[in-house]
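Structure (tokenized):
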């Protein structure tokens, strides 16, 4: 069991003017309530400064909470010191002791927990095997690669058998290739442990590939919680639609203030295979830029009312400056209101689509 419950968590940095008053500084986290399910791989994702680290540090007990409460398995831990919470945290900087070997680094935390020595060495062997570092037990951190150091930091946290693992951008110091192999390893480690993982990243690709529960944050609030598919297919607002995806959703504001959205992959150039049907929306545009992504091309197109991205695997290159006709099918259109919240009603979505279509016909 290791379910975390956040109730109206708010963090305001700074000192209050008088006792009993709220501080007047930055509201880094604003009234966040959610449940982090036990054994989930929950990823907090959002742009720089949105409050991810602050929220994670409050769960760890490293940061005081201005308002609200945190429960771990129905026990209120809001005022319990970090060491007594059964939570381990892995940081972006590995925070290893440089003068100690890999073995000693892992042993240190366990000795502090007053564990019998046979149990300590059994656990160290077990975690070194888990992170594939059995051969490196007697090296010092300076003689390891970045990825190996990160794995030592991970092993040290795993050895304590925490109920909850908190990780703050643990892979950001690694090169792209190592990062992707460490992602896979972390997913496997999560599978083999019975703990809850809470993982912070600003990288939506990392979030979508690793997490089974995604929490999208923006300016101190939680915008949406869901599985990667829910977040991608059913974003509840413009922010989530544009933050998730590479590139994010195209969102165009119409004359009436409502917005239409469509994924770069869900629109196509008109050609012999893609012949528009009568009720499709046809937009005309001019190609501004083309990026070759290997298996597909990313086109940046000016459609007058805005600029959009189109992802297409069609290798018949269109040239920059060329004009193009693009099809948007109704089933691929999303609608948002003036406040950038998703519109779900079928009739209202149809209205937004029709006004975009009417605009397309004028071009
Ligand atoms: N000790 C502090 N004192 C005052 N303000 C702070 C402090 N720490 C963070 N902040 C502010 O709180 C907000 C949230 O910061 P936080 O570090 O939680 O963001 P983040 O989402 O982790 O960003 P990043 O992706 O850049 O790490 C920011 O506006 C930041 O400037
Ligand atoms: Mg941070």
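Design, position by position:
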């Amino acid at each position: 069991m290791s379910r975390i419950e956040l109730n109206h968590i708010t963090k305001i940095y700074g000192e209050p003017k008088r006792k009993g008053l709220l501080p007047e500084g930055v509201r880094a986290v604003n009234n966040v309530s959610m449940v982090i399910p036990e054994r989930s791989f929950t990823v907090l994702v959002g742009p720089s400064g949105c409050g991810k680290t602050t929220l994670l540090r409050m769960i760890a007990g490293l940061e005081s909470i201005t308002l609200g409460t945190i429960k771990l398995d129905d026990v209120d831990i809001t005022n319990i010191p970090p060491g007594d919470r059964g939570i381990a945290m892995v940081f972006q900087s590995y925070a290893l002791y440089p003068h100690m070997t890999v073995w000693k680094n892992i042993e240190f935390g366990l000795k502090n927990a007053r564990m019998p020595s046979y149990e300590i060495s059994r656990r160290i062997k077990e975690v070194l095997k888990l992170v594939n570092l059995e051969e490196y037990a007697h090296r010092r951190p300076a003689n390891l690669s970045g990825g190996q150091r990160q794995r030592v930091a991970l092993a040290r946290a795993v050895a304590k058998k925490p109920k909850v693992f908190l990780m703050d951008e643990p892979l950001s110091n690694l090169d792209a290739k190592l990062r992707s192999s460490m992602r896979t390893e972390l997913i496997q480690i999560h599978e083999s442990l019975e703990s809850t993982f809470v993982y912070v990243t600003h990288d939506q690709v990392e979030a979508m590939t690793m997490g089974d529960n995604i929490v999208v944050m923006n300016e101190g609030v939680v915008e949406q919680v869901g599985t990667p598919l829910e977040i991608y297919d059913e974003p509840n607002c413009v922010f989530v639609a544009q933050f998730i995806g590479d590139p994010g959703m195209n969102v165009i504001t119409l004359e009436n203030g409502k917005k239409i959205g469509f994924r770069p992959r869900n629109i196509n150039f008109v050609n012999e295979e893609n012949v528009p049907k009568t009720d499709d929306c046809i937009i005309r545009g001019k190609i501004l830029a083309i990026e070759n992504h290997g298996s597909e091309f990313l086109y940046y197109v000016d459609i007058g009312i805005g600029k959009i991205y189109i992802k297409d695997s069609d290798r018949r290159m269109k040239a920059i400056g060329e004009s193009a006709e693009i099809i948007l099918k109704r089933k691929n259109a999303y609608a948002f209101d003036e406040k950038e919240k998703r519109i779900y009603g079928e009739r209202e979505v149809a209205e937004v689509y029709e006004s975009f279509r009417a605009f397309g016909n004028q071009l």
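Reviewer-requested clarification: The chain has two domains: 43-66+78-233, 247-362. The chain has a mean pLDDT of 91.
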